[in-house]
Amino acid sequence: MIILKSDAEIELMREAGRIVAECHAMLEPIIQPGITTLDIDRLVEEKIRERGAVPSFKGHQGFTASICTAKNDVICHAFPDSHPLAEGDVVTIDIGAFYKGFHGDSGWTYAVGHVSQDLEELMKACHQSLLLGIEQAIVGNRIGDIGYAIEHFAQQSGYGNVREFTGHAVGRELWEEPTVPNYGSKGKGPRIKKGMALAIEPMFTLGDARAYLEDDGWTARTVDHSICVQFEHTVAITDDGPRILTVL
Predict the structure, then answer these.
(1) Bridge partners of 241?
(2) Where would I find the H helices in 28-135?
(3) 105 annotated among ligand-binding-site residues
(4) How many Å separate Cα 152 from the centre of its chain?
(5) Is 94 annotated as a binding residue?
(6) Nearest to 167 by CA among 207, 142, 197, 126
(7) CB of 70 within 8 A of CB of 94?
(8) 201 labelled as ligand-binding?
C-alpha cells in the first residue's frame, strides 16, 4: 500500500533528512586514508543520537550497525569493519535517521584521497543520474519515468546500472511501497502523487552491474569485482515539484 504523507509529516521527514545531511557534511572532510568504517559508524551514531534521533538501520531486519557501507566492488549493505580505508578507494556511506516517527535516508559515495579519473567520472555520472531521476519525481508522472531517466543516462554514459537493488518510498517505515527501480519505461508504473516520499538511489558500475550476495546475507558485490558507486536522496513530492529532504 502506498502511504501519502501530510504537509506536517513531510516537515518531520525534513528534520530527519536534515540530521542525515548533517552526518554526511561531518564525514566529507574526515573520510581520508587510514580511517575505518567502524570509526565512521561510531561518529555517525553519536551525531544522530545527539540530535535526538536514532539510527534507522540499527536493528532493521537484524542489521547490527548504524550505517551501511560499500567499498570499491561492494554494491551495498556491507557492515562496517576495522580495515583502514586506503588512498584511491571509494566508499559509499548509507545513513538513516529516525526522528519523531519518521525516517530520512541518504547514501553518498566518497573518494578516499585521490582517485583515478575513471572513478571521478563514474561518480560524477552517477550523481548526475540522481538529479535526472529527481527531475522526473513530479505529480502526474509515473515511477517508470524516474527509472527510465536513470537507465537512459547510464547507457549513454557507458556504465553498468545496478538493477537488483532499488530505491523505495520512505516514511514511518524505512522501506515502504512503491519500489523505485533504477530502470523503467516512460509512462509505466505507479502514478506519482503529492505526499509521496521517495528514496531515489542509482548505483553505477565500471563493469558488470550484476550482483552476488556474500555468506553474511547482506554484503552485495559486483560479479566481476568492478567498482560501484551510489548516490541517494529522500525526495518529497509536492505541488511545486520534488523537494529534496536530505540536504542541509
Answers:
(1) 238
(2) 37-50, 117-135
(3) yes
(4) 19
(5) yes
(6) 197
(7) yes
(8) yes
Going by pLDDT thresholds of 50, 70 and 90, the confidence category of residue 206 is very high
pLDDT, residue 7, reads: 98
Task: Return the amino acid letter for 203.
Answer: M
Please state the separation of Cα 190 from the chain's center in Å: 21
Residue pair 229/126 in contact (Cβ under 8 Å)? The answer is yes
Q: At 53, give phi and psi (nearest 5°).
A: -115, 180
Q: Are 126 and 109 in contact (CB under 8 A)?
A: yes
Q: Which domains does the chain have, with CATH numbers?
A: 7-244 (3.90.230.10)
The residues with which 213 forms a beta bridge, in sequence order, are: 220
Grid look-up 538501520 returns 57
What DSSP designation does 154 have?
H
Tell me, letter by letter, the H, E, C secondary structure of 2-56. Answer: ECCCCHHHHHHHHHHHHHHHHHHHHHCCCCCCCCEHHHHHHHHHHHHHHCCCEEC
Does residue 77 have a known ligand-binding role? yes
Q: Tell me which residue of 236, 230, 197 sits closest to 72, measured CA to CA.
A: 230
Place of cell 550497525: 65
**Tens digits of per-residue pLDDT, 75-101?**
999 999 999 999 999 999 999 999 999
